[in-house]
């Protein structure tokens, strides 16, 4: 368990230069409506950052993440200093994404190349920045 307070976690699932993303619902009351996002979400109860990312990925795509696939973990502070930050993980899936079953959140999902994700005008900017952090330090 981590001692750093956090509100949620996101994870980039990578396989052969591709990642899985989904387009958020187009509802004005949610953060980043209609934008492309990565698996993850808000913390529940006392789960760890990794437990949060694993649970959300299972709920959103029915993909079960083995913790040994995690190659990157980084805490990012919130924009407001009094708020808890969030975690960003990267996992390398050697055997691919498996059989994806899209959950009930979001409009659609897609496999995107890393370059397509980073260049897409409707991807949440903070996720682009976090993926770039990983790429700069690991390629």
Shape: globular
Give the fraction of residues assigned to helices: 10-25%
Number of DSSP E strands: 7
Taking the sheet with the most strands, its summary is:
7 strands, mixed
SSE ordering: EEEEHEEEHH
Oligomer: single chain
The CATH topology comes to Nucleoside Triphosphate Pyrophosphohydrolase
Number of domains: 1
**Count of separate DSSP helical elements:** 3
Name the CATH homologous superfamily. Answer: Nucleoside Triphosphate Pyrophosphohydrolase
Distance between the termini: 29 Å
Classify the beta-strand content into a percent band.
25-35%
CATH architecture: Alpha-Beta Complex
Mean pLDDT metric: 93
Spans of at least 5 consecutive residues with low confidence: none
**For the record, what CATH class applies?**
Alpha Beta
Structural class: alpha+beta
Radius of gyration, Cα only, in angstroms? 14 Å
Structural account:
With 139 residues, the protein is an alpha+beta fold. It has a single domain (6-138), classed as Nucleoside Triphosphate Pyrophosphohydrolase, CATH 3.90.79. Helices cover 24% and strands 30% of the residues. It has helices at residues 49-61, 114-119, 125-138; strands at residues 6-15, 18-23, 36-37, 40-42, 70-76, 85-92, 108-113. Strands 1, 2, 3, 4, 5, 6 and 7 form a seven-stranded mixed β-sheet that branches. A hairpin with a 2-residue loop joins strand 1 (6-15) and strand 2 (18-23).
Helix and strand layout, with pairings?
Layout: E1 6-15, E2 18-23, E3 36-37, E4 40-42, H1 49-61, E5 70-76, E6 85-92, E7 108-113, H2 114-119, H3 125-138
Parallel strand pairs: 1-6
Antiparallel strand pairs: 1-2, 1-4, 2-3, 2-7, 5-6
């Amino acid at each position: 368990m981590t001692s750093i307070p956090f509100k949620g976690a996101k994870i980039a699932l990578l396989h052969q230069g591709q990642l899985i993303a989904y387009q958020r619902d187009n509802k004005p009351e949610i953060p980043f409506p209609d934008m492309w996002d990565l698996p993850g979400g808000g913390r529940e109860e006392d789960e760890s950052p990794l437990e949060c990312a694993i649970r959300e990925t299972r709920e959103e795509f029915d993909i079960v993440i083995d913790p040994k696939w995690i190659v990157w973990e980084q805490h990012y502070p919130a924009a407001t200093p009094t708020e808890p930050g969030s975690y960003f993980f990267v996992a390398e899936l050697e055997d691919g994404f498996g059989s994806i079953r899209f959950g009930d959140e979001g409009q659609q999902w897609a496999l995107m190349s890393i370059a397509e994700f980073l260049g897409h005008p409707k991807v949440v900017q903070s996720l682009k920045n976090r993926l770039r952090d990983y790429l700069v330090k690991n390629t």
